[in-house]
Amino acid sequence: MNYWLLKSEPDVFSIDDLKKQKTTLWDGVRNYQARNFLMAMQVGDLAFFYHSSTEPPGIVGLCRVLETHIADPSQFDPQSPYFDPKSSEDKPRWWTVRVGFVEKYKQMITLEVLRAKFSPDELVLLRRGNRLSVMPIASGVADRIIALKASR
DNA sequence: GCCAACGTTGGC
DNA sequence: GCCAACGTTGGC
């Protein structure tokens, strides 16, 4: 089983929204590197839910990959901000997954705490200029994040 | 295929 | 709101 981190702006979609909805299609990712990670996900993988562009940013919970290799429907929808005219139904370029709510942490693990506990080598999130919205987390690092969460 | 211009992300 | 970092676009 693999671990991942999914970024979302809470104003757009928050861990509370996921908790309410139970599951969501992780649509709208329009970056090839992030898409490649989405395509590498397997059913049962766990993903940390990260709130970005908020004060403070940080990991707010956990979700699980329920379904993989779904062609992102928003790429075909001219009304969608994620519409991609270069994509077609028979040859989609954007793929995603469905995730389900697992847990909302009682206390956020802030970016500041993550910076204090991990190196940029360990956590892609911490690398200078990083803008990836989907990234892998090494299992040892994931275990330490979970331990951090449990310790408070 | 280069690269300048532009747009976006996201922490601060 | 600023701006560094990075991805994408499009002219040549």
Automatic annotation (TrEMBL):
A Pfam family of this chain: EVE
InterPro entries registered for this protein in UniProt: 5hmC_binding, EVE_domain, PUA-like_sf, THYN1-like_EVE
Gene3D superfamilies the UniProt entry points to: ph1033 like domains
Domain EVE: from-to ranges: 2-147
Protein name stated in the entry: EVE domain protein
Organism: Meiothermus hypogaeus
